[in-house]
Amino acid sequence: MTSLGTSPGTSPGTPFDLAGLTAIVTGANTGIGQGIAVALARAGAGIAAVGRSSMDETAGLVAGTGAPFLEIRADLGSTEPLAGIVERTVGWSGRADILVNNAGIIRRADAIEFTEEDWDAVMDVNLKSAFFLSQAFARRLLEAGRPGKIINIASMLSFQGGIRIPSYTASKSGLAGLTRLLACEWAARGINVNALAPGYFVTNNTQALREDPKRSADILGRIPAGRWGKPEDLGGAAVFLASPASDYVHGVVLPVDGGWLVR
Ligand code: NAP
What EC identifiers does the entry list (predicted)? Predict the structure, then answer.
């Protein structure tokens, strides 16, 4: 088995180079997924962008980097498309080296009246599909005897409780645990499994919070960096976890939060 350190495009002295590698990024049409897809493309990776909405905007941004781009339409609310996502990517580029499990949803309601529908919808996208897509990706790598990198997009709710988002907190806490379990199972087999835990970022996910003047001011007041995150703030950490620079990093949940957790 080769290590990513000797993979195509990795030139000496540049352990963050992703040239010649292919990354699958779910939920890449907007927000954090789009920011990560563009960062990985800038580092040289071809991007297989997975989601249920048009990827035209992301396709344009990736084209600007010169990296190859493939759009894969899939609804990650079910496990049905997952194996096909890996197969289509490999059919397109001949390889799949990096998987970013980014697609996610949030449903807000008091725990006392939270519905089963809101529980299942969030768990299916945020946790179940992330696990079974990781499984399909890892099966392919292990069969081919190739190394790879999985990056799960966790949350502050992987560490904290939050309020009014019971299935989201359960899913993101679960994703942190799953990151650790998969790291334990696959580290010796050439697959790094890690997670990024964004703090409070300006995306569709946080629109309701940002529109609530009190919640918005309370959140901002607790962020030592003094501002909400922007999707591009995650780019460097994503490239690190996708690249040979992190070959000996396994099972971490890395906060990128403007200092939120240390407050
Ligand atoms: P977003 O703009 O709402 O992005 C969510 C992405 O997931 C979109 O691309 C969305 O596609 C996709 N998605 C949702 N359900 C899907 C489904 N059934 N099938 C396929 N794709 C689906 O919010 P975001 O903040 O960028 O969220 C990205 C990830 O970061 C999520 O896992 C979120 O939990 C996590 N996160 C966000 C923050 C934050 O402050 N924003 C903080 C911590 C963690 P559509 O556009 O088609 O819905």
Answer: 1.1.1.127
* Tens-place pLDDT, residues 138-155: 999 999 999 999 999 999
Average pLDDT, the chain: 95
- What pairs with residue 212 in β-bridges? none
- Identify the band that residue 158 occupies on the pLDDT scale cut at 50, 70 and 90: very high
Distance 20 CA to ligand 1 centre (A): 27
Of the candidates 144, 167, 8, 17, the residue with the CA atom closest to the CA atom of residue 86: 144
Asked if residues 220 and 213 have their Cβ atoms less than 8 Å apart, the reply is: no
Cβ of 81 below 6 Å from ligand 1:
no
Residue 168 designated active-site: yes
pTM: 0.96
pLDDT higher than 50, residue 236: yes
Q: Which of 69, 159, 168, 186 is catalytic?
A: 168
Residue 51 in contact with ligand 1 by CB distance below 6 A:
yes
Give the C-alpha separation, 159 to 253, whole Å: 10
The Cα–Cα gap between 183 and 178 comes to: 8
Closest ligand 1 atom to 200 CA: 40
Instruction: Tell whether ligand 1 has an atom less than 6 A from the beta carbon of residue 204.
Output: yes
